[in-house]
Write a structure and sequence with these properties.
This is diguanylate cyclase. InterPro entries: Diguanylate_Cyclase (IPR050469), GGDEF_dom (IPR000160), Nucleotide_cyclase (IPR029787), Rev_trsase/Diguanyl_cyclase (IPR043128). GO terms for molecular function: diguanylate cyclase activity. The chain has about 400 residues and is an alpha+beta fold. It has two domains: about 220 residues; about 160 residues, Alpha-Beta Plaits (2-Layer Sandwich). Helix content is about 65%, strand content about 10%. It is built from 13 helices and seven strands. The strands form two sheets. It has a five-stranded mixed beta sheet with strand order 2-3-1-6-7, sandwiched between helices. Strands 4-5 form a two-stranded antiparallel sheet. Helix 3 runs parallel beside helix 7 and helix 6 packs antiparallel against helix 7. It is elongated, with a radius of gyration of 31 Å. The termini are far apart. The chain binds guanosine-5'-triphosphate. Guanosine-5'-triphosphate (GTP) binds next to strand 1, helix 9 and helix 10.
């Protein structure tokens, strides 16, 4: 099928130019988010915005600009895109290889224009670099992406990177197979137009996927800020209550046990009065870290307020939870918090309450609170367990 490629490609390249400009604005607006990768993705799109007019002026301006420089800009765009992904995923950006490859590509393009003038070999050099960067991007995502792997942007970015790598290899093979060797990239063939269209879609499509990743990261950050206590990183009171209610529904559905520990640091006012409020904050943070290290994956630690914390232990009966509580109490007693204010020691009191069928989370908290009160009244630095309601005691006997 022979078609006039300029008629098809001109509006496509214009659309790509406008899309890249729009993506530049979107990414520039996201720079203040502080998320890693934004600056590189922005540069990748700026490079596309610069490249397309140079391509459009081919034959009007010198080839050294419209071919050699323009393809160098495209290579830089691909390198920036990969570096953005690497930064976003907390991985090394490998500039040495990215720039080394880009320089090799520019040298090869210059040689196959001014040494031996061969369009197929130029296309091969350009496509080889593009395909290598796309493959490396897909591999980076597969290995290091930590978000939801069934999310649209994860699939989009990984899938598109693979597709574009294949498209570029195909284009290089296609140009290599043509006889006589073509001298104009605007070859009047359906395949060429299709492959050029795919090429024009690469950066806007990959950047769109990057924007979706940034969007998810911002959403996760906002949720974390809403659900976590800023100082200790434990769940906020509100989120702990929501989690507790959810755990109760699961315990009711699965008939698995659920136990709540209410933990209060003893004589915390004295720590504040002796070492200062900032030292008290450090003790709270160190305590939350210490508890976090002792919990299993599904256990949840929340800060109810002040120096009072709660731990939800799904799948743990009262006996198992008592062991956990005792271990935490001993660990707290031995815990030395060394800060710029000196060395603080502290102890904790714990109230333990096992969930009883039919009970809501407020009722479970009330019983754990009564047990905590008993532990405090009993002299502190101890664990007290709420007894089962008499009717449940009878059932479990
Ligand atoms: N450093 C610091 N102190 C806090 C924070 N929230 C609450 N407090 C302090 O924690 C102390 C709690 O004191 P109390 O309620 O009397 O309890 P306590 O001294 O731990 O005594 P018992 O609980 O009876 O053992 C108060 O001095 C609060 O100001 C916080 O975020 N940081």
């Amino acid at each position: 099928m022979n078609i006039n490629p300029v008629l098809v490609l001109a509006p496509i390249f214009l659309t790509t130019e406008l899309l890249s400009l729009a993506l530049c604005l979107v990414l520039a607006s996201l720079r203040s988010s502080g998320l890693p990768g934004v600056r590189h993705w922005l540069l990748a799109n700026v490079a596309v915005v610069v490249y397309l007019p140079l391509l459009g002026l081919r034959g009007i301006i010198p080839d050294v600009i419209s071919i050699v420089l323009a393809n160098g800009v495209v290579a830089l765009s691909a390198a920036c895109y990969y570096a953005g992904c690497a930064h976003f995923l907390g991985q090394p950006s490998r500039w040495k290889y990215l720039l080394g490859g880009a320089v090799l590509q520019v040298l090869a393009v210059a040689y196959w224009r001014y040494g031996v003038d061969s369009l197929p070999l130029r296309v091969m050099a350009i496509s080889a670099y593009g395909a290598a960067v796309c493959t490396a991007t897909a591999w980076l995502m597969l290995r290091h992406y930590t978000g939801r792997r069934n999310s649209v942007h994860y699939r989009l970015l990984t899938g598109l990177s693979c597709l574009f790598a294949v498209a570029q290899i195909t284009r290089s093979l296609y140009f290599g197979m043509l006889h006589p060797a073509p001298t104009n990239i605007m070859l009047a063939s359906g395949w060429n137009v299709l492959l050029l269209c795919l090429g024009a879609a690469i950066m806007p499509a990959l950047s769109m996927a990057a924007v979706l990743m940034l969007h998810e990261a911002l959403q996760t950050e906002a949720e974390e800020a809403a659900n976590r206590d800023f100082m200790t990183g434990a769940l906020s009171r509100k989120h702990l209550f929501a989690t507790g209610q959810q755990f109760i529904l699961q315990a009711a559905a699965t008939r698995r046990p659920l136990t709540l520990l209410l933990i209060d640091l003893d004589h915390f006012k004295a720590i504040n009065d002796t070492y200062g409020h900032a030292a008290g904050d450090e003790v709270l943070r160190a305590f939350a870290d210490m508890v976090g290290e002792h919990l299993r994956g599904r256990d949840a630690l929340g800060r109810l307020g002040g120096e009072e914390f709660a731990v939800l232990l799904p799948d743990a009966g009262v006996a198992a939870a008592q062991l956990v509580a005792e271990r935490l109490r001993l660990r707290a007693q031995q815990h030395r918090v060394v800060s710029s204010f000196g060395e603080c020691r502290y102890s904790i009191s714990i109230g333990v309450a096992g969930w009883q069928g039919g009970e809501n989370f407020d009722q479970l908290c009330q019983r754990a609170d009564q047990a905590l009160y008993q532990a405090k009244n009993g002299g502190r630095n101890r664990v007290h367990t709420s007894q089962l309601a008499p009717e449940l005691q009878a059932q479990s006997a």
